[in-house]
Write a structure and sequence with these properties.
The chain is 47% helix and 21% strand. It is an alpha+beta fold. The protein folds into three domains: 2-111, Alpha-Beta Plaits, CATH 3.30.70; 120-128 and 286-464, Trigger factor, domain 2 (Orthogonal Bundle), CATH 1.10.3120; 149-246, Chitinase A, domain 3 (Roll), CATH 3.10.50.40. The strands form four sheets. It has a five-stranded mixed β-sheet. Strands 7, 8, 9, 10 and 11 form a five-stranded antiparallel β-sheet that branches. A hairpin with a 2-residue loop joins strand 1 (2-9) and strand 2 (12-19).
C-alpha cells in the first residue's frame, strides 16, 4: 500500500491510496476459498467446485464484497499510519478499480485539530463545604413532625376550625338531580388546605358532629363528568366526626417511626441529608467552574463539518426562516460545545480514561433505585434505546475526567454556612436565567442528548469504522 497526502487545506486533507493488484488478488483468493468450502452446485462435490466456475457464478458479487473489505482495512491503516484522527466519516472517491487492476482511491478527510492541554495542576477551582448548624437540623425535624399530625376526635359540642380534620359522608346534586359519582363515604378534609373543591373547606367551618351542612360549589375543570364542568353543585354533608390536631412529640418513639434508631440517630440522618442536598448542588457549581477553566485552553481550529452537524441539532423543530435568523448564534454555541468536547476528550485520551460496561450498568441500577415501582419501565427504556445508554456512557466519561481534574488540580476549599450556600446557588441560577433571556437562540431550543458535551467528549474523535463512497470513475 502506497499513501501520499495531497491538497492539504487546514484540517481538510486528501490521501491518495494505491493498492497493487497482487494484494487485491490475495483478498480475492481468500474469499473464493471461503466460498468453495460452503457452496453447493449441481454436478460438483462439496468443496470441489473449480474456481473458474465460482467466478462465473459469483464473480461480480465477490469482487464488490472484497472491494468493500479492502477499502475498510486500508482506509483505517492509511489514517493510522499518518496519525490522522478523523472528525467524522471519511469520504472515498474511487479512481481506478477492477479485477486484474491496481486499486487507486482518494480519502477526503477532515482531521481533528491539535489541542493544547496545559498541566492539570494549573487548573484552579473553588470547592464548597457547608456547615449545617444544629438549629437547621432541628428545624427540619420539627417540620417533619408538623406534617405528621395526629388527629383526635373531640366531643359533639366542639366546632370545626381551620386546621381541624372533618370526617363526613355526602350526596351531591346538580339542578336537584343525582349524577355519576355523586356520593362519598368517610371523606376526610383538613380545613384550610382547600384540597377537595375550591371553596369547599370554608363552608364546613364551625360545623359539628351529626350536623348536615349543604355546601354549594362550582364543579372544577378536571371533574370527570365533562358535561357538568362549571355547573353549581350542592353537597349535602353529614358530619361524622370533628378531629383536632394533636402536637407530635419529637422523641425516640417519633424517630423510630421514621426508621431511625433513636432521636440522636434521626438528627444524624437528617443532618447528613441536608448536607447531601447542598453538596450535590454546589458540586455542579464546581463542575461549571472547571469547565470554564478548560474553555481557556487553546484549540486552533474547529472542524466545520462538526459545527454544521451541531447547528442542525440546535435548529431542530425550527422553520427555515427561524433557523437562518439564529444561524450565527447557533454557530457560536456549536463551536463552544465542540471545543469543550475536544478538550475533554484530549484529557481523557492522555490519561487513558475509559468507561467500562459495568459502570454503565451500575449507573442504570442507581436510576432504578431512584424510581421504585418503575424499574421495569426504566430497564425497558434502556434496552429499546441504545442511544440512551450511549448518553450515559458520555456522562460517566465526563465525570471521570472532572474527578481526575479535581484530584490533581489546585482546590480552594471554602467552608460556608447554609445561608451563604443558598446565596451562591441563587446567584448561579439567576445568572443562568438571565443568560437564557439574552440569548434568543438558546431560549428557543433545548439541546438534545446528541448535542450534549458529554456525548461529544466521548464520540468526537472516534475513528470512522465505515467509509462513504462518493463516486466511481
Amino acid at each position: 500500500m502506497k499513501v501520499t497526502i495531497e491538497n492539504k487545506k487546514g484540517l481538510n486533507k486528501d490521501l491518495k491510496v494505491l493498492i497493487d493488484k497482487k494484494t487485491i488478488n490475495s483478498y480475492l483468493e481468500e474469499k473464493y476459498e471461503e466460498i468453495k468450502k460452503n457452496v453447493v452446485l449441481k454436478g460438483f462435490r462439496p468443496g470441489k467446485v473449480p474456481k473458474d466456475i465460482l467466478k462465473r457464478q459469483f464473480g461480480k458479487a465477490v469482487y464488490g464484497e472484497v472491494l468493500d473489505k479492502v477499502l475498510k482495512d486500508t482506509t483505517m491503516k492509511a489514517l493510522d499510519e499518518n496519525k490522522i484522527k478523523p472528525a467524522g466519516q471519511p469520504k472515498i472517491d474511487l479512481k481506478s478499480f477492477g479485477e486484474g487492476k491496481d486499486l487507486e482511491y482518494i480519502i477526503s478527510v477532515t482531521e481533528l485539530p491539535k489541542v493544547s492541554i496545559k498541566s492539570i495542576e494549573d487548573i484552579k477551582f473553588d470547592e464548597y463545604k457547608v456547615n449545617i448548624d444544629k438549629s437547621e437540623t432541628e428545624k427540619r425535624i420539627n417540620g417533619i413532625a408538623k406534617n405528621q399530625k395526629n388527629f383526635i376526635e373531640v366531643d359533639s359540642a366542639k366546632v370545626a376550625n381551620e386546621g381541624d380534620l372533618v370526617v363526613f359522608d355526602y350526596t351531591a346534586t346538580v339542578d336537584g338531580k343525582n349524577f355519576k359519582g355523586n356520593e362519598g363515604k368517610n371523606t376526610q378534609l383538613e380545613l384550610g388546605k382547600d384540597l377537595f373543591i375550591k371553596g369547599f373547606d370554608k363552608q364546613l367551618l364551625k360545623s359539628k358532629k351529626d350536623e348536615i351542612i349543604n355546601v354549594t360549589v362550582s364543579l372544577p375543570e378536571n371533574f370527570p363528568e365533562k358535561e357538568l364542568i362549571g355547573k353549581e353543585a350542592v353537597f349535602a354533608c353529614k358530619i361524622a366526626a370533628v378531629k383536632k390536631p394533636k402536637e407530635v412529640k419529637v422523641d425516640d418513639e417519633f424517630a423510630k417511626n421514621l426508621g431511625a434508631k433513636d432521636l440522636n440517630n434521626l438528627k444524624e440522618l437528617v443532618s447528613k441529608q441536608i448536607n447531601e442536598e447542598y453538596k450535590n448542588s454546589l458540586e455542579n457549581l464546581t463542575k461549571n467552574e472547571i469547565l470554564k477553566q478548560l474553555e481557556k485552553f487553546k484549540v486552533d481550529q474547529i472542524p466545520e463539518n462538526l459545527v454544521e452537524q451541531e447547528v442542525k441539532i440546535l435548529s431542530q423543530g425550527m422553520n427555515e426562516e427561524e433557523a437562518k435568523k439564529n444561524r450565527s448564534k447557533f454557530e457560536e454555541t456549536a463551536k463552544k460545545r465542540i471545543k469543550l468536547g475536544l478538550i475533554l476528550n484530549e484529557f481523557g485520551e492522555q490519561n487513558k480514561i475509559k468507561v467500562e460496561e459495568h459502570e454503565i450498568q451500575e449507573e442504570i441500577q442507581k436510576q432504578l433505585k431512584m424510581m421504585p415501582g418503575q424499574e421495569k419501565m426504566v430497564m425497558e427504556y434502556y434496552q429499546k434505546n441504545p442511544s440512551a445508554a450511549a448518553s450515559l456512557r458520555g456522562t460517566i466519561y465526563e465525570n471521570k475526567i472532572l474527578n481526575l481534574i479535581k484530584e490533581k488540580a489546585k482546590s480552594n476549599v471554602k467552608n460556608i454556612t447554609k445561608e451563604e450556600a443558598e446565596k451562591l446557588l441563587k446567584s448561579a441560577h439567576d445568572h443562568t436565567h438571565d443568560h437564557s433571556h439574552d440569548d434568543n437562540a438558546e431560549k428557543k431550543t433545548k439541546p438534545s442528548k446528541k448535542s450534549s458535551i458529554e456525548k461529544k467528549a466521548k464520540t468526537i474523535s472516534k475513528k470512522a469504522t465505515k467509509t462513504k463512497k462518493v463516486s466511481k470513475k
